[in-house]
Amino acid sequence: MSPNSTTTRWWWIRHAPVIGHGGLIYGQDDHDCDCSDVETFRRLAKVLPNRALWVTSHLKRTHRTADSILAQRPDEAPPQRLVEESLAEQHFGAWQGISSKELSQGRDGAWHRFWLAPAHEAPPEGESFVDLTARVTATVERLSQAHAGRDIVAVTHGGTIRSALSLALGLEPERALSIAVDNCSLTCLDHIHGTAGSHAPDDHGVWRVRLVNATRNALDPR
User: Fold this and answer.
1) Residue 36 neighbours by CB under 8 Å, 6+ apart
2) Which of 59, 102, 168, 193 could form a disulfide with 207 if both were Cys (CB 3.0 to 4.6 A apart)?
3) DSSP structure class, residue 93
């Protein structure tokens, strides 16, 4: 790495499991989450950097998850926090509030192996995964520039993190849908700007993937 480069480190965490949805499609519905697994939050708190910028979506499950992690770091001063609505989960429109089985029946049995629909398909009154990836990409690029050289802890959603991985790995959105992102898992992506000798223009920088979907035991196997 060039001594003239600047690295912005993204620490992506998917929110804790949603409660009370009963197997329904929730998307951007604002459900609460189960924050009873204190040991998972302790392990996350142990590996996350100090003096980071913390970012959540506007949905309460991301706020509660962030609060639960920070509660395991009582000695650290409260971090700077931002709420970015553009980092919310995909909006599934008219599909929100129904079950996957009901959706499949309404679509004559059509289904997607890892998601609710192909990446390009937008539900009625909703958005496609391609749309989600576009808004996440714009936000990640904006925050990477505005907070260059910092650690950014982003407590968000499964679709949001898949979108960030699509950006970092240069994947088509459809392929990104096959990436597993578990609740409370950690994914680490670095944006490196100004790398000498890089094949990418300096004004765009390059991405490095350090960790994907690390769950509780991987974070602290002891």
Assistant:
1) none
2) 168
3) G
C-beta of residue 119 within 8 angstroms of C-beta of residue 130: yes
Task: Name residues whose C-beta falls within 8 Å of residue 74's C-beta, 6 or more positions apart in sequence.
Answer: none
Distance CA 222, CA 217 (A): 8
Task: Single out the residue of 3, 93, 104, 14 nearest to residue 61, CA to CA.
Answer: 14
Strands 53-56 and 6-14: unpaired
Domains of the chain: 6-219 (3.40.50.1240)
CA-closest candidate to residue 164, choices 194, 148, 144: 144
Structure confidence by residue, pLDDT tens digits, 25-64: 999 999 999 999 999 999 999 999 999 999 999 999 999 9
Q: What is the pLDDT of residue 112?
A: 67
